[in-house]
TrEMBL record:
<feature type="domain" description="Aldehyde dehydrogenase">
    <location>
        <begin position="537"/>
        <end position="757"/>
    </location>
</feature>
<feature type="active site">
    <location>
        <position position="265"/>
    </location>
</feature>
<comment type="similarity">
    <text>Belongs to the aldehyde dehydrogenase family.</text>
</comment>
<dbReference type="InterPro" id="IPR016161">
    <property type="entry name" value="Ald_DH/histidinol_DH"/>
</dbReference>
<dbReference type="InterPro" id="IPR016162">
    <property type="entry name" value="Ald_DH_N"/>
</dbReference>
<dbReference type="Pfam" id="PF00171">
    <property type="entry name" value="Aldedh"/>
</dbReference>
<protein>
    <submittedName>
        <fullName>Aldehyde dehydrogenase family protein</fullName>
    </submittedName>
</protein>
<feature type="domain" description="Aldehyde dehydrogenase">
    <location>
        <begin position="46"/>
        <end position="481"/>
    </location>
</feature>
<dbReference type="InterPro" id="IPR011408">
    <property type="entry name" value="Aldehyde_DH"/>
</dbReference>
<keyword id="KW-0560">Oxidoreductase</keyword>
<dbReference type="InterPro" id="IPR016163">
    <property type="entry name" value="Ald_DH_C"/>
</dbReference>
<dbReference type="InterPro" id="IPR015590">
    <property type="entry name" value="Aldehyde_DH_dom"/>
</dbReference>
<dbReference type="InterPro" id="IPR029510">
    <property type="entry name" value="Ald_DH_CS_GLU"/>
</dbReference>
Amino acid sequence: MTTIQEILNTMDYGTAPEDSKIVREWLSKHESGFGHFINGAFTKVGETFDVQNPATGDVIARVSQGSASDVDDAVKAARAAQPKWAGLSGHERAKYLYALARHVQQHSRFLAVLESIDNGKPIRESRDGDIPLVARHFYHHAGWAELAEDEFPGAEAVGVCGQVIPWNFPLLMLAWKVAPALAAGNTVVLKPAEYTPLTALAFAQIAAECGLPKGVLNIVTGDGETGAAVVGHENIDKVAFTGSTDVGRIIRQQTAGSGKSLTLELGGKSPFIVFADADLDAAVEGVVDAIWFNQGQVCCAGSRILVAEAVAAKFEKMLRKRMETIRVGDPLDKNTDIGAIVHPVQRDRIAELVNKGASEGLDLCQGTAPEGCFYPPTLATGVSPASVLWNEEIFGPVVTLTTFRTPKDAIALANNSRYGLAASIWSENVNLCLDIAAKVKAGVVWINCTNVFDAGAGFGGYRESGFGREGGREGMAAYLKQPKLKVKKPEAAPAAPNAVPVDGAEIGMIDRTAKLYIGGKQARPDSGYVYAVNGGKKTVGHAGLGSRKDVRNAVEAAHKAAGWGKATGHNRAQVLYYIAENLSARAKEFTDRLVSFGMNNGAAKAEVETAIRRCFWYAAQADKFDGMVHQTKTNNVSIAMHEPLGVMGVACPNGSPLAAMVSLVMPAIAMGNAVIVVPSQDHPLAATDFYQVLETSDVPAGVVNIITGPRDDLAKTLAQHDDVAGMWYVGTAEGAEMVERESAGNLKQTWTEDGGARDWTSAQGQGKEFLSRATQVKNIWVPYGE
Ligand code: NAI
């Protein structure tokens, strides 16, 4: 023990330990172990596993390993409770959420100490960061419960939610998931991470204390197997997962075709960009918050510093100096900056990745750390995009530093990652910051700040960082749904196309064969085949038999049309109005075409009329479906921008061949996406006529590409394609399952539906849902006011 005299002599710091007595007492009361929290009560302790304090290695609790039957009990309880919970008024639900917020505040010291003991994070962070934000989340969502009916008219709760959370912010991640779910009228089965289940169990006690109706919140502890049982349970309506990208991908595959809605918050490798005119002192402190906060175990950690060459040497020197003052040690010491790594397995993983990086010849600068489950702050310089430290999410206090010359280089380096969770930009020039914010591929952008969170702003990623948002209006929307459309008659799989060679003598009508439409040009199918299109009983024409190669060409063409996403809403609206006018001018021709498929004249006319109206409606929306500004924290507002997904695949149903295609393509392009559309397989000619409309409407080349042919094969190629960011599929149930499964590779956003569910010629074929499905929200945090 250091004496005060010694401290005064050395001017070294003394320890300031937080008292952990209340937590030790609570743990000793549960020495025999913890059961699960199911249907409002704790179950008997079953088979258990040990939970350790990572800072000491001591076993602090024994917690039950949830079996499939425990999960089943929890789901049954949640299912039974759901109708009554959803049936309460929003005001009644709000009262419970307020109570939860208040009780969290009352127990805040206990929860903060427990979190630090269980997870290893410094008490300063759990006390000033995690727990206040937990309370804030419940307060904020109490408000959403109160307002849900007014703010989301017609929407209803999704049902029973299975939620699986990680160990880096154990109670905060619980709050992010549980608060919106309950506010919206869902019930929950939550599985905390096996390293850190204790605050979730303490929260269950708080929920009981608040009188939350039984079954509304169920907590089942256990490992990945328990998590898989939750995700795979047939009676769950929605899965919300936060964790590693690898597990996220497994879950995407596992839930494919199940009809469960899914949100994934996955890994990241976020850039931290420092321009030459940045306030370098502030930026150095920013790095401390970006990567040495929570031991770097943060999905949105700024783990790649990109610094302008002109100030790189100075910045690095300042950073190294700052690193010397970072204290690694006892999480319960109020002076500790970096606590313990969550588990020895994770510590070894960090060390292994750093060693790999070192073997590549990188220059490493490390601070000091005590023996045990600790890791020193680490800076790797001279890191290139080929390095393991650049590519892998390390999830530890390890940051790389790379230099750049121009803003363009900075963007290229920042976006050189399969992830897209967050980015932090440092410059005194607000024009530059906002320009970079627009170009960086990330769901969250912090300008002259980093790792700021608030319940009022959406959080979530682009690319392989997952999809869906938590927090704010977007987060609330993810726990609500529009009443499900009834499938009238499931769509039958279209028969295999009857292929004939393009040059086959038997066609005798070669010049009338509709071609594909790729990059603004008509293109012959690569296969060299066409297929017969039947109307009633006779063949009415031929369409190109598109294949994998055509899809690849179309994706390439769509990428070249990226300028479309940057055009103003007004400009896009002009083009859509032009499409509407040109379609209108050729209404008779399109009506005749539909009649040639065997449709009666009245229905054909109505369908063409609907398609025209739809073009006008989305033209009108192109400059109106914009984002909003969230009041988040003092000194910040967050600007929630609607950005296009990028390149999208759109596979259309067989029925309503013109209306369905227009209903799907128009919202996608109105929002700035470029699309590869696979039209009705059996009646593709309305689509191939449509490209003549596109050609005369100033639609830039590559914005709409049309590939006719075997829909599900083409949809599969699109779903598998890593350069396609979003995929809409309306067809058969099997096709929908296939699309969801195959899209797991790059974790693209999907929207699938049975072709029999929607009447495309009615109001069901149009709406804001189409626009929000065609966009992703980027939250840009900017300094504002004092
Ligand atoms: P993980 O993804 O395996 O664990 C997260 C949660 O998922 C835990 O509750 C776990 O029990 C559960 N889980 C595991 N397998 C599952 C499955 N098949 N089905 C359903 N649930 C399952 O992460 P892990 O192994 O603890 O950490 C490994 C790496 O993952 C870290 O080093 C880090 O890079 C990354 N990670 C990223 C997180 C993030 O928020 N982005 C959070 C945790 C880990």
